[in-house]
Amino acid sequence: ALGPxxxxxxxxxxxxxxxxxxxxxxxxxxxxxxxTVLAPLRAALDSCRPSVQKQVCNDIGRRLTVLEDAWAQGxxxxxxxxxxxxxxxxxxxxxxxxxxEIHRSLMVDHVNEVSQWMVGVKRLIAETRNLxxxxxxx
Length: 138
Prior knowledge:
This protein is mostly helical.
């Protein structure tokens, strides 16, 4: 005889557990600005330019522009915007595997929304991970 189920929002927390960098659930979901996500991505791209082929960097840059346009036109759902914000946080903290995991979940759950630009984000994660200064991470 288990008691009644616990009260509270259904399914709000499980994914965020164990992730101290996760923002508050729903109330901040829609307030993620494009610049919060795009500025760190472009900074990461700039840091790759000296060691990554120009053609690769240009392709990533084009895909980031597609992401920016989709965001500006309101074509990205709140869950995609929120997860991209989390992905950028993981990238900034050099949590490569966590960033990759968020990328994969977006590709699986929102492929139609992200397919045109996510390849660039994936490549950016990979190239940033390979930068010489990131290998010193403990």
